């Protein structure tokens, strides 16, 4: 096991783990967004999806443990790699020195150098999202007796949540638009013929994530009838 410990402590090992966990989290984003998009199909479709999701508590618990474990590993590896880079270069983190000319830019000028910032914003968005939808912190009175679709509609139409969810979704989209391609390269999927396509797919994926997750708050603001399920609920009673 010493080789495994040594590998995980190495810079290459940490980047590999960060890539694997990042790809797993990208897969989670696809599944999660697909489920959320059922809100546009209708309240019944979304409520059925939510019911199926929570009907098997054991399976859901395993999935959540894997998910939070992947998040914890990804964040830890990101921080440890960043700290190591700062220590090695003994430079200010604002200006990163590199042998590559295309990376000799200020930290905030390129997507690959803003991964930490967009990751932290995305993490804040995730924590708020979990607090809202899973724990319902602060929403107990407003969400009492509501269906899952109605709960989602109430939360995403809140003005404060509109700002947080839109900014968080955009930051998350920027993060994965670079992260997906980098992760593929890190695990060895790197070829001059295919790498440009991988990076293009990565950017498209980032746009889908940003637009998809932010769309619910935007639609609730400008087209409130689309996600207003109160009438649907009253008819079903």
UniProtKB/TrEMBL annotation:
Q: Which UniProt keywords apply?
A: Membrane, Transmembrane, Transmembrane helix
Q: Which domain of life is it from?
A: Bacteria
Q: Which positions, given as ranges, span the membrane?
A: 16-39, 59-83, 104-130, 162-183, 204-223
Keyword Transmembrane included in the entry's annotation: yes
GO cellular component, as recorded? membrane
| Family annotation (Gene3D superfamilies) | Fumarate reductase/succinate dehydrogenase, transmembrane subunit (1.20.1300.10)
Does Manganese show up as a keyword for this record? no
Q: Which InterPro entries match?
A: Cytochrome_b-558, SQR/QFR_C/D
Q: What is this protein called?
A: Succinate dehydrogenase/Fumarate reductase transmembrane subunit
Which source organism? Thalassoglobus polymorphus
Per the UniProt record, the lineage of the source organism begins with: Bacteria, Pseudomonadati, Planctomycetota, Planctomycetia, Planctomycetales
